[in-house]
Give the backbone structure.
Amino acid sequence: MNSYKRLLLANKAWVQEKVNLAPGFFSDLAKEQKPEFLWIGCSDSRVPAEEVTGTQPGEVFAHRNIANLVNHTDINLHSVLEYAIEYLKVKHVIVCGHYGCGGVRAALTRHRYGIIDEWIRQIKDTFYAHQEEVLAVGDFDKQADKLVELNIHEQLRNLMKTKVIQKAWIQEQRPTLHGWVYDVKDGFLKSLYKVEPGSPLHEIYQFEF
């Protein structure tokens, strides 16, 4: 059997399982979505948001890219962010990275990979700003995992710098920002950082409303 046909068959089995448990599952889901969470995660196939959090369709609004970056020039991400904050009214934004991240590991090298080199430049900048801290932890694998954590923190700071987050903080005291890391070796999520609405930010990044 072709691999893609297996996916279609698995979908039919999944639908039947849902309908058996709750006959109105899909009709209710089709009416609207009211997710409480926006998930900004890595595109890595080993870290699917709903699977690792045990959530159901409709509970998590998700955006994924290489190394879970919040890039100020990424109109795709910022469209997702604006929709999640202003229209879906999510209460929590989770930036979730993972140990063993290929994008972060690539950023620690001088190899040329193609267009991704431009994308991971931001991670190289994070390393440059924290190189003593990264280099002090040990071998390459440990350095990469430390940079994974620092990269998550940097993306939370990038979220704080956006107009949509600042506006929601001032007007509605939401969302809370979370930095999580997933360990592909054992399957566990770990909370690293939490940023409450109204947390301090240098005035040069603050917008007037």
